[in-house]
Amino acid sequence: MSSSAATRPAAPGRHAALDRLRGVALVLMLIHHLTDWLTGDARAVLPGWRSFVLTDVAAVAFFVAAGASLGLFVASRRRRGTSRARVAGQVLRRYGLLVPIGLALDWAFWRSPSMFGVLEALGVAVVLAAAVAAVVPARHLPLAAVAALAAGVWSERVSVGHDAWLAREVIGGKFPLVTYLGFVLVGVAVARTGRLAGPRWTAGAAAIGVGASLVLLVGGAVPARYPGDVPFIVPGLAGTAIVYGLAQARWPGRLDLLDRIVRQAAAHTLGVFVAHYVVYGVLRQQGRLGEATGAVAVPLAVAVTVALCLLAPRVPQPPWSLRTGRRRPPAPAGGAAETGGTDTEVGGTDTGGAALGGTEVGGAEAGGAAPSGLRHATAGHGAGRSS
Which of 132, 194, 265, 370 could pair with 269 in a Cys bridge, judged by C-beta atoms 3.0 to 4.6 Å apart? Predict the structure, then answer.
């Protein structure tokens, strides 16, 4: 058997396509942020429209992947016989703790205790999505996702002009909560309705998304990252479906290195996420923010991204994590997919380089959903908050 990623089987319990989706999303996010920090405006350099570039798909893809991970995680725990109350507690611990982690990073880099950034949005949105999925039958989850996205568009429009923190940061901020709840519910719906492994369904969803995006373009609506309105939602979901369709395909051996980078990024999202903030801190300390040209910044951003993804697995892992509990060795190849009921995440615990969430396939966890969509608002303040 070839040693290439195209023929190499996934590790026990891992969902290869979902790994690739979140890994590609993380790589796109890193390239966007690093380019933004180096040049001062990534959207003036990267391919796409002035208001929406290729890397903006990362924001949607991360939250959709988080929803799919959540759906698989809860289903696996319930198959083990874990009570609903205990599953709810595990979800709250895994994702709810992202909120204080995000607040700590906000304070460390910007001395701002009131920001509602990507980690806070991810934590709250996933916990809310778990509550919705607990009471809504699987067949109705697609409708719940559409309803949440529509409510997000409406609520963000209503919040315009209001100065209250809830309206400014949570409802209509960089990560409008209701809209991003909708993205998470899209992922939950795909997982719960059994469409996660359906290439034909993915191709159909991508075709519909591309068609809807073209209709918007013909009607004069150019894709735009901000606000989180229809011109962001439709191309964002279309791009996510395209990436997931490519992730489901058999990758040729010449893409083995790329596949390795993507999967390692998927399994170590939190460590890579924190590390790329360290890069921002160094650039700010040295006064290098916004000084590079695009011709220099993009190759450098790609090189740093590759380095972070390849180095992440080499970071020592602590034996215990507040979010995921005690780390245990994964099941051996060819053995049972279960990991003895452990809360271990693939790639280690969530400190020093593991995934933000957990995907379970047949009982073993397969990495987690990554944060996304930080944006370098200015070269001197609020950099890296969203894409």
Answer: 370
Are 18 and 245 contacting, i.e. CB atoms less than 8 angstroms apart? Answer: no
What's the CA angle centered on 275, arms 259 and 371, to 5 degrees? 65
Residue pLDDT, tens place only, 299-308: 999 999 999 9
- Would you list the DSSP string of 59-97? HHHHHHHHHHHHHHHHHHHHHTT--HHHHHHHHHHHHHT
Contact 360, 60 (CB under 8 A): no
Q: What angle do CA 216, 219, 225 make, to 5 degrees?
A: 40
Among residues 267, 358, 317, the alpha carbon closest in space to that of 10 is found at 267
User: Is 171 in contact with 163 (CB distance < 8 Å)?
Assistant: no
Widest CA span of the chain, in angstroms? 61
Q: Please give the structure tokens belonging to residue 63.
A: 């939250």
How far apart, in whole angstroms, are the C-alpha atoms of residue 179 and residue 232?
Answer: 10
As given in the structure block, the two tokens for residue 125 are: 């949105």
pTM given for the model: 0.84
